[in-house]
Amino acid sequence: MILVKDLHKYFGKLEVLKGINCHIKEKEVVVVIGPSGSGKSTFLRCLNKLEEPTRGEITVDGIPLNSDVNVNAIRREVGMVFQRFNLFPHMTALENIILAPEVVRKTNKAEARKNGMELLAKVGLYDKADEYPDRLSGGQQQRVAIARALAMKPKIMLFDEATSALDPEMVGEVLSVMKDLAREGMTMVVVTHEMGFAREVGDRVIFMDEGIIMEEGKPNEVFENPKNPRTQAFLSKIL
Amino acid sequence: MGMNWHVVVDNMPILAKGALLTLELTAGAVAIGVIIGLFMALARLSKRKVVRAGAIAYIDFFRGTPLLVQIFLVYFGIPMLLKWQTMPDNYQYTAGILAMGLNSGAYIAEIFRAGIQSIDRGQTEAARSLGMTQAQALRYVILPQAFKRTIPPLGNEFIALLKDSSLLSIIAIQELFYTGKIIVGRTYQPLPMYLAVALYYLVMTQLIAQWVAYMERRLGKNDLG
Question: How many other CB atoms are there within 10 angstroms of residue B190's CB atom?
Answer without folding.
Answer: 15
